[in-house]
Amino acid sequence: MATLGIPANTIAVLQKYNFNFQKKFGQNFLIDPHVLEKIIDAAGVTDEDFVLEIGPGIGTMTQYLCEAARHVAAVEIDRNLIPILEDTLKEYKNVTVLNEDILKLDIGSFAKEQNHGEPMRVVANLPYYITTPIIMGLFESHAPLKSITVMVQKEVADRMQAAPGTKDYGALSLAIQYYASPKIVANVPPNCFMPRPKVGSAVIHLVHHEKAPVLVEDERLMFRLIRASFNQRRKTLANGLNNSPEINLSKEEILESIEELGVPLTVRGETLTLEQFARLSNIIKSK
Ligand code: SAM
């Protein structure tokens, strides 16, 4: 039975092992059964699913995942947590714990070896200091994914879900929305964690697109354009692209491309949709 969601049980485990939290690993453990149930529910995990959990900590969410999934692979960087996980997960036969850094793991080969290359679900209460590299690493690996359901900093969740022209809209919104449909499923206050983080948190559910929502000839060029447009907010798109060391186009070529896109030459990058960035990159590619 999943027991660690109850604060007293988490404290007992921490005391038994004399565990010291490591700030550098972003360790804030969940101590709220309602939040844990909400995450499992939002993730849509069934007994047919293979789940990758990033950063199991002392195994709190892992216990819930083991009860819902066919198999759970939990990747934890902190070797001090491994003997604790062996203890807290001993009841479960459907879990594999790996003492690895998720950023160094080859996710594509991992998916092949562990789940015969079939789509998996990712569920995690992420270490906030590496939220973006973890999520982008998962998408860019092109490993087979059904969904990613993760606890992140509230402000980051808002940016992932933001629409064009809003204050939170930026390169992260476009990168996430190119790969998935995002939906914030819960806001979680600091008192649901031990120790309490200084920021609010949110659970975001990302459903991986089966097919890219826009046609892009050169993804890397599109992401270079996106970065250049948002590096200088409140500047026009033309100036943003012209000032970027990543874009090797003359001012005339930039203005021609923007004209071909059919938007005013004074347009700001932060108002462009994903579809418009895709078209702009295809226009530039063809030049
Ligand atoms: N899942 C647990 C929970 O909800 O109580 C712990 C979540 S805590 C926010 C983040 C976890 O990620 C910690 O256990 C931390 O040690 C682990 N972690 C940090 N960096 C990591 C990395 N690069 N690779 C794998 N795990 C990492």
Describe this structure in words.
39% of the residues are buried. The chain contains twelve helices and nine strands. It is elongated. The chain folds into two domains: 7-208, Rossmann fold; 219-286, Helicase, Ruva Protein, domain 3. The chain has helices at residues 7-16, 33-43, 60-68, 82-88, 107-115, 131-140, 154-161, 171-179, 219-231, 237-243, 251-261, 274-285; strands at 29-30, 50-54, 71-76, 95-99, 120-125, 145-153, 180-188, 193-194, 201-208. Strand 5 (120-125), helix 6 and strand 6 form a beta-alpha-beta unit. By secondary structure, the chain is α/β, with parallel strands linked by helices. The model has no long low-confidence stretch (mean pLDDT 96). A seven-stranded mixed sheet has the order 4-3-2-5-6-9-7, sandwiched between helices. The chain has a two-stranded antiparallel ribbon with strand order 1-8. The longest helix has 13 residues, at 219-231. The chain binds S-adenosylmethionine (SAM).
| CATH C-level name of the largest domain | Alpha Beta
The unique ligands bound to this protein are: S-adenosylmethionine
Report, as a whole number of angstroms, the end-to-end distance: 61 Å
Give the averaged pLDDT, no decimals: 96
CATH topology of the largest domain, by name, is Rossmann fold
Q: Kindly state the percentage of residues in helix.
A: 40-55%
- Give the CA-based shape: elongated
Number of helices: 12
- Largest beta sheet: strand ordering: 4-3-2-5-6-9-7
H/E element sequence: HEHEHEHEHEHEHHEEEHHHH
Q: Give the name of the CATH architecture of the largest domain.
A: 3-Layer(aba) Sandwich
Low-confidence stretches: none
The total tally of domains equals 2
Say how many strands there are: 9
- Identify the CATH homologous superfamily of the largest domain: Vaccinia Virus protein VP39
